[in-house]
Amino acid sequence: MPVKIVTDSVADLPAQVVDELGITVIPVLLRFGEELYRDGIDMTTDQFYDRLKQSKFLPSTSVPAPVAFAETYDKLAEETDEILVITVTSRLSGIHDVASQSVGLMKRKCRVEVIDSQWAVMPQGFIVIRAAQAAQAGARFDEVLDTVHSTIPRVDMRAAFDTLEYLKKGGRIGRAAALMGSLLRVNPLITLKDGVVEPAGRTRSRAKAMDILYDFAASYSNIEEMAVEAAACPDDADLLVERLGALFPKERIYRTRTTPVIGTHTGPGLLLLAILGDK
Are the beta carbons of 117 and 129 closer than 8 angstroms? Predict the structure, then answer.
């Protein structure tokens, strides 16, 4: 029986990819006041960003209950003896801890291993995709694990923001707090390093920020996968994809909208480029 791959909704995987590769996605929870939503299920992305712009209060996110993970594992254990769970970086979320603790709540016997991807959004997604492709091709569990560990250091990202205020309010800003100084007329850029948000520069215009994203891609000698993500700035994403077509086939670039749980911490101005490859 093939290894089953599980991840959380922070990976921002396109629905078509999830279906084609048989990936199980556990939604993170999103709270607006007293209302609780499952990320990517109970509220559309457009509805979320419309509400975010109008809301006086910042929504919050929370980790799914342990029972949600345990029930998912038990259901998959009806089809397999081996489950690999790949989570968002443990340094930004408690999902990894809960996913690990939930194994002890299972009613069925099954090998379950939980891996900290050290990433989020599509860099995490690329790791999950590679694991699922290996599993679908019939790789043994340890071979799938090897694929995950060899892919983690080969993914990277750069993200441009209109403001870092959302990251600051959500407590996820990490060492990028150094960029907070004067946010007026500044487009900050960030990445992740060792699972923590790190500054990657700042510029005075959105056009210059897109130049930096392009130059980041151009620094690679080999690109296997590429993704452009946007929150509520589709025109910027379209322009970036057009430019990146000079470096990588446009039809192979994953286009994703950041899910509400990501938008809660980034705001509507996020434009992100993720790459799997070698510099």
Answer: no
